Amino acid sequence: MIERIPDLVNADANLVRRGRYLSTTFLMEVGDQGYLVKIIEGRVVSVTPGPFVTPNYSFALRAPRDEWETFWTKLPPPGHNDIFALFKRGKLVIEGDLHPFMANLLYIKDVVAAPRKEAIGERSDAVLEEKEQ
Fold it and tell me: What is the pTM of this model?
């Protein structure tokens, strides 16, 4: 799912425009698997899966796989709807140089949430069916 982030982000002109001043690489850990996400002027140019010997990144976002999978559903439940909700619950670790992260927070949040755009959303579909009945 994370491998689709470049296509999803780069297809969104408004998101690319919002990140146009950001060029960085950050580490995203999904459980035991790490990914280096390289951004140049708002475009995600690569998502490289690990393992890495000596990765070079500015900041890291680390959470268990099941937390990310719930986060990436179409309508995530409370506590999974935002990276700071994961952080508050102690499920997400944010570390490294926080300046590029915080200076481009809304952009980074949308990049990380990009897989929601094509999420199957079984849980959200079930919730919608309940509301319709």
Answer: 0.83
Enumerate the β-bridge partners of residue 39: 24, 44
Q: Which residues of the chain have pLDDT under 70?
A: 119-133
| Per-residue tokens: 23 | 């060029």
How far is residue 13 CA from its own chain's centroid?
A: 18
What's the rounded Cα separation, in Å, for the pair 68 and 30?
7
pLDDT at residue number 117:
84
In a 3-state reduction of DSSP, which class is residue 79? coil
CB neighbour list of residue 108: distance below 8 Å, 6 or more residues apart: 26, 101
* pLDDT for res 111: 96
For the chain, what are the domain ranges? 2-132
Specify the pairing of strand 43-49 against strand 59-63: unpaired
Q: How many other CB atoms are there within 10 angstroms of residue 61's CB atom? A: 23
Q: What is the CATH number of domain 2-132?
A: 3.30.1050.10
Residue with tokens 């439940």: 77
| C-alpha to C-alpha distance for 42 and 104, rounded to whole angstroms | 10
pLDDT of residue 2: 87
